[in-house]
Design a protein that fits this description.
This protein is an all-alpha fold and 452 residues long. Helix content is 78%, strand content 1%. Helix 7 runs parallel beside helix 16.
C-alpha cells in the first residue's frame, strides 16, 4: 500500500516529462498496476492535482497583480520620492512636537498623494464613461483641498478654510496658467498658441458668478445694512452656496451632454491620447490599472491624505509662530502648493505639446471647481457641523479675487497665448503673494472656538 502511494506521487512527474514525445496510451502499456487500479489512480490525481495547481497559480497571480499595481502607482512617478516625508512628519510629531517641521514635512508628504489621487481618478474614469467620469473629477479633482478644509472646520479654523480655498483659485489662475503659457510660448516661440475661446468664456462666466457670490456677503457686512445683525450675512451665504451648487450641476450637465464635443476635457484627453497611439505606437489611452485597483487606491490615498491633513491643520498655528509667517500667507500661498502640484505639472506638460485646450481645462477648470463646488460645499459642511462658515472672505481677499478674475479674463479673450502673457500672469501672482505676506488677517471669533 505504501509502495502504491509512492508510485502515485511519482507518476505525474513521469507523465510531464514524456507527454510531449509519446501518446498517453503508451503509458498504459508500461503501467505497474492493473487498468482498473490505474483508472482509480488517475481519477484521484485529477481530483487533487488541479486544486493544488489552482491554489499555487492563484496565489502567484495575486502576488504578481499586487506587485504590478504597486509598481505602476507608486514607483512610476519621481514625485513619489516625497512619500516617505508623510510618515516622517508623524514620527517628528510624536518625538519632538515641533510644529514647524511637522507642517512642512506634511506639505511634502501630501504633495505626491494629491497627484496620485488625481491619477487614480483618471484611471477610474476609463471604466465609468464621460458623465460619471466628469462627476468623479469634480469630486476628487480637488479632494485634497476639501479634506484639509473639513479638518480645519472641525477645529473651528474658518479663516484657514476660506483662505486656503481662495489660494487654490489664485494659484490655478495665475501661477499654473502662467507657467503653462510661459513654457508653451518658449517651446513654440515662433508662433502664437491658440485655444478654444468658448471654453474660456464659459469658465470665466462661472468665476465671475463665484465672485458675485462672495462679494455680496462682504458688502452686506461692511455697509452694516443687515436686517438681522450677524444672521443675515450667514443666511445669505448658505442660500448663495446652494444656488452656486445648482449652477455647477447645471454646468456639468451642459458640459457633458449638450456640448460634449466642445467642452468635455475627458473626451479631449482620450482623443489626444488616441492620437499619440497612432503616431507613437503606444497605448496611453488604455487604463494602466483595473477598476477595482483604482477604487482601492482611491480609498488608500484618501485615507492617507486625511491622516496627514489632520497633522497639517494642527501644526499651522505653531508653524506660523515658529517661523514668524502670517497664517494668511501660509493658507493662501503654501497650502495650495499641495493640492495644485498635479495640475501644475499637467498644465505645463500639455502646453509644451501645443495642447493648450487641455492646459486651460486643467488650470481654469480646477479654479471653477473650487469656486463653484469646493467653497459652497465647505459652507454646507460647516452648516452641518454647526460652524458659521460663510462667503464673507473679507474685503481684501474678495477684492484680490475680483481683480484676478478680471485680469485672467482679459488675457483669455483673444484665444491666443505666448510666453509674455505667461510671464505677466506669474508676476501678478508674485504681487499677490507679497501682498498676503504683509497682510495681517483680522482676528475672528470663530478661530478661537475649540475643536469638537
Amino acid at each position: 500500500m505504501d509502495y502504491k502511494l509512492q508510485v502515485v506521487g511519482v507518476q505525474p512527474h513521469l507523465q510531464m516529462g514524456s507527454l510531449q514525445d509519446q501518446p498517453i496510451h503508451e503509458f498504459d502499456d508500461h503501467a505497474l498496476f492493473p487498468l482498473e487500479t490505474d483508472g482509480q489512480k488517475t481519477h484521484s490525481l485529477n481530483a487533487v492535482e488541479p486544486s493544488a495547481t489552482f491554489a499555487v497559480g492563484g496565489s502567484k497571480i495575486l502576488k504578481n497583480g499586487v506587485y504590478r499595481s504597486i509598481k505602476t502607482v507608486v514607483f512610476s512617478n519621481k514625485l513619489n520620492l516625497l512619500m516617505p516625508f508623510g510618515p516622517l512628519a508623524i514620527l517628528v510629531h510624536k518625538l519632538t512636537g515641533h510644529n514647524g517641521w511637522v507642517f512642512f514635512l506634511c506639505l511634502l508628504g501630501i504633495t505626491p498623494l494629491a497627484e496620485r489621487l488625481g491619477y487614480a481618478t483618471e484611471q477610474l474614469a476609463f471604466f465609468t464613461g464621460p458623465t460619471v467620469g466628469g462627476l468623479l473629477n469634480a469630486t476628487f479633482g480637488n479632494a485634497t483641498e476639501l479634506i484639509i478644509s473639513i479638518y480645519a472646520l472641525k477645529d473651528g479654523m474658518v479663516r484657514v478654510v476660506q483662505l486656503s480655498l481662495l489660494g487654490s483659485i489664485l494659484s490655478n489662475m495665475l501661477l499654473v496658467l502662467g507657467c503653462a503659457f510661459l513654457c508653451g510660448g518658449l517651446v513654440f516661440h515662433g508662433k502664437e498658441q491658440v485655444f478654444d475661446k468658448a471654453t474660456a468664456v464659459v469658465n470665466a462666466g462661472l468665476l465671475l458668478m463665484a465672485v458675485m457670490g462672495l462679494l455680496f456677503p462682504a458688502v452686506l457686512h461692511y455697509t452694516h445694512t443687515e436686517v438681522h445683525f450677524g444672521k443675515s450675512e450667514l443666511a445669505l451665504s448658505r442660500f448663495s452656496s446652494c444656488i452656486m451648487l445648482v449652477a455647477y450641476a447645471a454646468y456639468l450637465v451642459f458640459q457633458l451632454k449638450s456640448q460634449r464635443d466642445s467642452y468635455v476635457r475627458i473626451n479631449e484627453e482620450v482623443s489626444e491620447n488616441r492620437e499619440n497611439v497612432d503616431n507613437d505606437n503606444n497605448n496611453d489611452e488604455a487604463p494602466e490599472i483595473s477598476k477595482w485597483e483604482s477604487l482601492i487606491w482611491l480609498a488608500i490615498m484618501t485615507a492617507w491624505i486625511s491622516i496627514l491633513s489632520e497633522y497639517l491643520v494642527d501644526a499651522i498655528k505653531g508653524a506660523s509662530d515658529a517661523y514668524d509667517i502670517p497664517i494668511a500667507f501660509i493658507s493662501v500661498i503654501l497650502l495650495p502648493i499641495v493640492g495644485n502640484a498635479a495640475e501644475h505639472a499637467s498644465a505645463i506638460m500639455f502646453a509644451m505639446k501645443d495642447k493648450l485646450d487641455i492646459s486651460l481645462g486643467v488650470a481654469i477648470g480646477s479654479s471653477t471647481q473650487i469656486s463653484m463646488f469646493g467653497i459652497p460645499v465647505s459652507v454646507v459642511i460647516g452648516w452641518m457641523m454647526g460652524r458659521e462658515m460663510d462667503l464673507n472672505f473679507q474685503l481684501f481677499e474678495t477684492a484680490t479675487l475680483f481683480i484676478t478674475v478680471i485680469v485672467v479674463a482679459f488675457f483669455l479673450q483673444e484665444g491666443t497665448s505666448n510666453y509674455f502673457k505667461g510671464l505677466m500672469l506669474i508676476l501678478c501672482y508674485l504681487i499677490v503673494a507679497a501682498s498676503f505676506f504683509v497682510h495681517e488677517d483680522p482676528p475672528s471669533p470663530d478661530d478661537n472656538q475649540p475643536g469638537t
